[in-house]
Each structure stands twice: as C-alpha cells, then as structure tokens.
Write a structure and sequence with these properties.
By secondary structure, this protein is an alpha+beta fold. It has eleven helices and six strands. It binds zinc ion.
Length: 222
C-alpha cells in the first residue's frame, strides 16, 4: 500500500533533488540546511518576514500566487516559520487552482482540516525531514524504532535531558503520555544509553511537534 499523501511526498523529493542538483553542493545535509532558500529561489518566490500578517496574530504565513510572494510572521519561532514556509511552497506547487492561502501554525493531528492543508503538511514534512535521511539518523541514535508504550528507563533519562522538556516523568508516566507527546519528547533528546548527540530537532532545525508527527508517521516511535 502506498503511504498517505504519496504524491505530495514525491513532489517534495523531486524539488529537493532538483535544488540539490542545481546547487552543486555535494553534502546532502548541507542542502537540507539551506533548502528553503534554494527552493524559493528555484521557484522565483519572494519570502518576506513581517511582524504581523493582515493584522491577525493567529496567521503564521500567507502565499500570494499572483505576486509569487510568501509572508511569514516573525512572532512564531524560527523552526515554526521554517515549517510554514515549506507549507506555503507546497501550496504553490500542489494547489495551482487557488491564488491565495493564509495559514495558522502546524496543528496536532486529529484536528479537522481540509484535505489540501494536510497534504501541504505532508509535503512540508518530507521536504524538511526526508524519510530517506531521517530513518538512518534515527536508527543510529536510538538503535531502531522505539515503542514508548513499553517501560524503558533509558528513554526516560533521555527525554528528561531534552532542552525543551520541563517535565520529568517516571517510566510509568511516560508510557501513559499521548503518542505525539512521547514522540515530541524523543525528538529533542540529546542522549540515549550513555551516548550524546545533537537532537533530531536541532539536526533538522524543526519544532518538536513537527518532528514528533514525522516520527509517528514513519513508525519510528509509537
Ligand atoms: Zn495551508
């Protein structure tokens, strides 16, 4: 069976391959680091950072197709702005029938959204955290997929040291968190079984929530 939003993910990979080829950069990780700049240049999109969009504090980003312009609200975190930018690029490529998009921040799965919004999120996730890259990185850090529903003291030590994690859980409590909360905590872990590393959120420059959703969808965390 094809994964959900197969076409959106393929479109993200095609764009990544094209900007990688055109950039002449040999290290694929270096391409990922500047992929949004390279992509907007490739598509001849102007990206503007502004304090507030349309006087509405809730709006994180807009795409104006006619002006080939993306605006991002700087009141949101840098990692959030990156995801929103990739989301607007997705609309530009995938949804040519609509001229204007205005978007809020990435929301948790389960909240009802239109099909094309979830499709744009799938594109953005693949563009910023390509499965082909993320999978070996995760396996190297954690030794394989992690089942957070099983008691695992190593995991609690790991997520307890995550920079964004304010809570310390007992191993029992951790197994009772929502899958997304567990995955988001693992996304910002800096250590596992005595080894130290840059967290996944730092390596891919994405939010805990964005990485958490991607880890769940890839079946690397449950
Ligand atoms: Zn959208």
């Amino acid at each position: 069976m094809k994964p959900r939003f197969f076409a959106a993910r393929v479109a993200a990979r095609v764009l990544l391959r094209r900007i990688w080829f055109k950039s002449g950069i040999t290290d694929p990780h270096a391409v990922l680091g500047s992929s949004l700049d390279l992509a907007s240049r490739d598509l001849m999109l102007t990206v503007e950072h502004v304090p507030v969009i349309l006087g509405d504090n809730q709006i994180a980003g807009v795409l104006n197709r006619l002006e080939k312009r993306i605006q991002l609200a700087t009141k949101f975190r840098h990692t959030s702005q990156r995801f929103t930018c990739a989301h607007e690029i997705a609309h530009f490529i995938l949804h040519p029938g609509t001229i204007y998009f205005r978007d809020r921040e990435l929301s948790a799965p389960g909240i009802h959204r239109e099909y094309f919004e979830i499709e744009a999120d799938a594109f953005a996730a693949e563009f910023l955290m390509p499965r082909k890259f993320l999978d070996p990185v995760f396996r190297n850090m954690f030794g394989g997929p992690i089942d957070g529903t099983i008691l695992n003291p190593d995991l609690v030590i790991a997520v307890g040291t995550g920079v964004d994690t304010r809570t310390r859980w007992t191993p029992e409590e951790f197994t009772f968190l929502s899958p997304l909360d567990r995955a988001a905590a693992i996304a910002s872990a800096h250590t596992y079984k005595g080894r130290f590393f840059a967290s996944l959120t730092d390596q891919f420059n994405v939010s805990q929530k964005a990485m958490g959703i991607q880890l769940l969808q890839m079946g690397l965390v449950k």
